[in-house]
Structures are given as C-alpha cells and as structure tokens.
Design goal:
With 72 residues, the protein is an all-alpha fold. It has helices spanning 4-14, 18-25, 29-37, 45-54, 59-66. The mean pLDDT is 90.
C-alpha cells in the first residue's frame, strides 16, 4: 500500500504542487488527487516511474512511498 503522506511531503520538499506533477505526467489533476486519496484509482507502474523521475526519487524513496508494507 502506498504511503501518501510521504509522497505529499516529497512534493512539498521539491516545491511542487499536485497540479505541477499531474501536468508533467500528462494526466488530469483530479485523477492524480483520486489516486492520492486511493478513491477507486491507484498508481500504475508507469505512474510511479513518471513520478519518480519528476521528483528525482532514489530507489529507497520509491519503495518507502509506493511499496510500503506498513503505512500507519
């Protein structure tokens, strides 16, 4: 399960908004928000790849954010 708190923190660290990232990914801002809220949509492997490049994430960060086993 993805850790959206860490993703949001990383966006803030990089000075990017959801709109900035969704524009760079080529998806609608509302779609990105639904994926963050896990509201019926999840991030695909392609999404994760794009986000990791946009945010310049390291492998450990990608795993912590998108493949976290415990997000409590």
């Amino acid at each position: 399960m993805a850790n959206m708190k860490k993703l949001k923190l990383k966006l803030k660290e990089k000075g990017l908004s959801v709109a900035d990232v969704s524009d760079k990914m080529g998806i609608n801002k509302a779609t990105f928000y639904r994926k963050i809220k896990n509201d019926g949509e999840t991030f695909t492997v392609g999404d994760i790849d794009k986000i990791s490049k946009i945010l310049n994430l390291q492998v450990e960060e990608i795993n912590d954010i998108f493949f976290a086993s415990d997000v409590a």
